[in-house]
Design goal:
This protein is an all-beta fold. The protein is 3% helix and 40% strand. A nine-stranded antiparallel sheet has the order 11-12-13-14-29-23-22-17-20, with no helix packed on it. A five-stranded antiparallel sheet has the order 1-2-3-4-5, with no helix packed on it. The chain is globular, with a radius of gyration of 19 Å. The mean pLDDT is 98.
């Protein structure tokens, strides 16, 4: 356990990995490149460790990482319509990288940056300064992401930052979970519960329409746990538009409070996960567009072989006044926390 060399960037900069283990034997690895969570080993029903997140063995693969496996996403997770937004009297223009829209802050987001990692006990703090104009965002943004592996089998992810200009701060983690093990294939028979009675419908470019719609009576309803695959192919326009689940859910808790976000369970392994956040929304993404990736240990990752619970402000919130605002005022402190906790059931 501790700090080990993971790889070297083309410009010669070294990238280190940090290995953490709690007293129960749960293990986690995070790396300085992209502040990425690369592996998470938890105990199954038989007492065997299984790595439950998708990822790669090599730095070179993370430098491509079209699926954003394990990545820290920033400054703004999810989509911004037209790759632009108004901030006071200024129009901010970003780089379009999904049609005319901006996804996950552009082609060179936080997941493609080298962070500085510092370990203290069972926490690793990754820090960097995102300079004024990086990917089009205003202000020098000092940001840290701290991963902690706790004694009650939680992975806590805490974000903190401040900026010298008004900017957008909406960071998230893009880990793909498969509670049967990362190498086990499609995860459609795993059960999910989401603590949300409504969601934000999207147009054909996956931009929210501005409506907040009830999940009642639709395939979007995960208020009671159900298999991911049960309704994913339903004849429902929202699922057709996105190739399966890839939607923001409006969490059933007061704005700014920390509480449950989602749960997942694999009957076969017995591994059960609870997720918590202080964010107002969570993007549930069922891995529809994983395209036969080769992952850790040569594992084959087909479509829907992992799923994400991306805590967040709603997509395109900076352009929708009715949505909670992701704007961080100059000099104020951005803080957010999300956690994933593991049990056997």
């Amino acid at each position: 356990m501790g700090k080990v060399l993971f790889g070297v960037l083309p410009d010669g900069r070294e990238v280190y990995a940090f290995d953490l283990e709690n007293t129960k034997g749960m293990k986690m690895r995070v790396i300085e490149y992209g502040a990425i969570l690369t592996s998470l080993e938890v105990f199954d029903r038989e007492g065997q460790l299984r790595d439950v997140v998708l990822g790669y063995d090599r730095l070179e693969d993370y430098m491509v990482n079209g699926c954003f496996f394990g990545s820290t996403i920033g400054r703004s997770g999810n989509r911004i319509q037209g790759a632009c937004f108004q901030l006071g009297d200024r129009q901010v223009k970003l780089t379009p990288n999904e049609g005319e829209n901006n996804l996950h802050s552009g082609p060179e987001g936080f997941e493609k940056k080298l962070w500085k990692g510092e370990q203290q006990g069972n926490s690793v703090k990754f820090s960097r300064v995102s300079p004024d104009g990086e990917n089009g965002f205003p202000g020098n943004f000092q940001i840290s992401v701290t991963y902690t592996l706790t004694e009650d089998n939680q992975v806590e992810i805490a974000y903190q930052g401040s900026c010298d200009q008004d900017t957008v701060a909406n960071l998230t983690n893009h880990s793909y979970f498969n509670l049967a093990g990362h190498e086990s294939g499609a995860a459609l028979n795993q059960l999910v519960k989401i603590f949300a009675g409504s969601y934000t419908p999207v147009d054909n470019a996956s931009i929210p329409t501005g409506e907040i719609a009830s999940v009642e009576g639709t395939p979007m309803d995960f208020r009671e746990e159900k298999e991911i695959g049960r309704d994913i192919e339903a004849d429902f326009s929202q699922l057709k538009a996105t190739g399966g689940y890839d939607h923001n859910y409006v969490l059933d808790k007061p704005l700014g409070t920390y509480g449950p976000m989602a749960e997942a369970w694999c009957r076969e392994s017995g591994i059960y996960m609870k997720a918590y956040t202080d964010c107002p929304g969570v993007q549930f993404y069922a891995g529809n567009f994983i395209e036969n990736e080769t992952g850790k240990g040569g594992a084959f990752y087909p479509a829907r072989s992992g799923y994400c619970f991306e805590s967040q402000y709603y997509p395109n919130a900076v352009n929708v006044p009715a949505f909670p605002s992701p704007v961080l005022k100059a000099g104020e402190t951005y803080r957010s926390k999300t956690a994933y906790q593991f049990f056997v059931r």
